[in-house]
Amino acid sequence: MKKLFIAIIVVAIVAGGAYAYVSRQGAAGASSPPPRTETLPAVKAGDKVVAEAKVVPVQGVELGLPVAGTVAEVLAVPGDRVAAGQLLLRLDARQQRTAIAQAEAALARAQAGRERARASVALLKAGPREEDIATARAALGIAEAELARLRQGPDQAQLVAAQTNLAKAERARQQAQQQYDQVAFAPNIVVRPETLKLEQATQDYEAAKAQYEQLKAGPRQADVDVAQAQVEQARASLTLAQTGARAEAIAAAEFDVAAAGADVLAAEAGLAKAQDALADTELRAPFAGTIASFDAKAGELVAPTAIVARLADPSAWQVETQDLTELNVVRLKKGSPVSITFDALPGLSLPGTVSRIAEFGKTRQGDIVYTVIVKPDRQDDRLRWNMTASVSIEAK
Predict the structure, then answer these.
(1) Contacts of 292 (CB under 8 A, 6+ apart)
(2) pTM as predicted
């Protein structure tokens, strides 16, 4: 830029001198012979483009978190060498861990439901089993025996036993009544043992009487109906055990398997989402390198847009221009030789080449500027991120 400015001044001075010379010749008079005019050579622009620049890593990144939160733990400091994937910072993630536990429980329930549904389908497709048939036949025998007993009614032994129990209960009630009558006018009659004994004896008598009357009257139709229904159900179960499941039953069970599988997928998605939310609270190194800066402390609140750390691979640096305008960038090409100097290292000059020229220009202070990346031919251990540099690029 400075050379271009000097060239413009030189052109202006030369043009002004030529104008003054012609004016003096014209003033000398028309009688003088016209002087021989000479064509001035064009002022050539410099063959180098000089620009300010800065040192940047070939592989470098500014790191932040996608969520806001309170810093719980800082695990790195500037200057640390870190491996790819190494944890650098962790936010308070109690809510995220709780959500993971809930999602894991939901997944376990869904998986158990799917396994039950699968087992049901397998059982239906397996067909009848001898043990199932034997169990169903035994259940039918018990149901039929109970129905027969109800229809037959009580035998004489049952009636005698019930009548004897009723008589015994009646005597006990009478004795309790006599004991109660002896203290009936006592002031504390309600809580006396005679009162409690009479109440219990009366209840026993009523129960014995109801049992005897029920046996004497024979089975109730409602009881017979219930027993008949149990026989029919046991007979249907035996038939099913002997013939196996129907096609529609298998289809319904398979539908249950599909629905249970969908529940598992939904639970897995919920768990993955909860795990991603937990991962968002952790800052990890995307590649191996050195921590250039770290701007977070335990207990601080971090915003989603904040730059928390800068990570670089210090084994390879490049130089990035900052002020090449559209007038200069058109004179450059990829592969052009470059000489690089550094403000902080006055004795150092590195050769290099243009490795990349930006296709898109940005507006800066009224000019359109383009970023040009210069790759040094060799590295220097003293280089640091953001050091000021100057590049002199061979132009077309």
Answers:
(1) 60, 78, 309, 310, 311, 312, 385
(2) 0.55
pLDDT above 60 (res 19) = no
70-100 pLDDT tens trace = 999 999 999 999 999 999 999 999 999 999 9
Query: Maximum Cα–Cα distance for the chain, whole Å?
Result: 174
Q: What is the residue whose two structure tokens read 């962790």?
A: 90
Q: What is the CA radius of gyration of the chain?
A: 51
**Is residue 246 classed exposed, middle or buried when 0-12, 13-18 and 19+ CB atoms within 10 A define those classes?**
exposed
In this structure, are residues 143 and 231 in contact, taking their beta carbons and an 8 Å threshold?
yes
- Specify the DSSP class assigned to residue 183: T
Token pair for 214: 């029920």
**pLDDT of 153-207, one tens digit each?**
777 788 888 889 989 999 999 999 999 999 888 888 888 898 999 999 999 999 9
How many other C-beta atoms can be found within 10 angstroms of the C-beta atom of residue 192? 16
- How far apart CA 391 and CA 357 sit, in angstroms, is 14
pLDDT band at 248 (very low <50, low <70, confident <90, very high): confident
- Write the CA distances from 328 to 11, 62, 339, integer angstroms: 19, 30, 16
266-269 contacts, C-beta under 8 A, 24 or more apart: 266/110, 267/103, 267/106, 267/107, 267/109, 267/110, 267/111, 268/107
117-163 pLDDT tens trace: 999 998 888 877 788 889 989 999 999 998 888 777 777 788 888 88
d(CA 73, CA 371): 38
Closest CA relative to residue 387, chosen from 312, 308, 289, 294: 312
In sequence order, which residues have a C-beta less than 8 Å from that of residue 361 and are 6 or more positions away? 326, 329, 368, 369, 370
Write 241-244 long-range contacts (CB < 8 A, 24+): 241/128, 241/129, 241/132, 241/133, 241/135, 241/136, 242/128, 242/133, 242/136, 243/128, 244/124, 244/127, 244/128
